[in-house]
Amino acid sequence: MKIEGMLIDALPRESNSTIFLKNSRRFPDSTQPYSVQKIYKDDAGDVAFHLKKYKPTSRNAPDPYSKYPVFRGKIWSQQLDDYIVIVKPSEIRCHGAVWKFCRTDSVVVMLDRVSHAVLL
């Protein structure tokens, strides 16, 4: 596995946490979901996240969720990128929800909005 260009040995593990990152020069697409692989604290006490990007779906069919932009869902492959991205908590925009759409793909929804009705 490669982490920021360096080849390292690591044991793969399944994650159940998905996040989206804030727009920046380093991460220009805030709609790209990432799976949290590991959370750690370094010797200086700084927290960092090891992430892997979701790969685009290889389906040849249109994404049925694209018709509903307010839903903010999109179909992504269940396969993750091979490369690890390391980020600080300040680079995280929000969490995401994931559910299996079919054998090879999942629907990922950005959870960056809270409805007024939920708060009442």
Question: Mind sketching the topology for me?
Answer:
Blueprint: E1 2-3, E2 6-7, E3 18-21, E4 33-41, E5 47-56, E6 73-80, E7 83-87, E8 92-100, E9 105-111, H1 116-119
Parallel strand pairs: 1-7
Antiparallel strand pairs: 1-2, 3-4, 3-8, 4-5, 5-6, 5-7, 6-9, 8-9
Q: How would you explain this protein's 3D organization?
A:
This protein has one domain. It is globular. The protein has 1 helix and 9 strands, in the order βββββββββα. It has 120 residues and is mostly beta strands. The chain is 3% helix and 47% strand.
Write a compact overview of the structure shown.
With 120 residues, the protein is mainly beta.
Low-confidence stretches: 5-14
Share of helical residues: under 10%
Overall morphology? globular
Number of helices: 1
Notable features of this structure?
mainly beta, 1 helix, globular, 3% helix, six-stranded antiparallel β-barrel, single chain, 120 residues
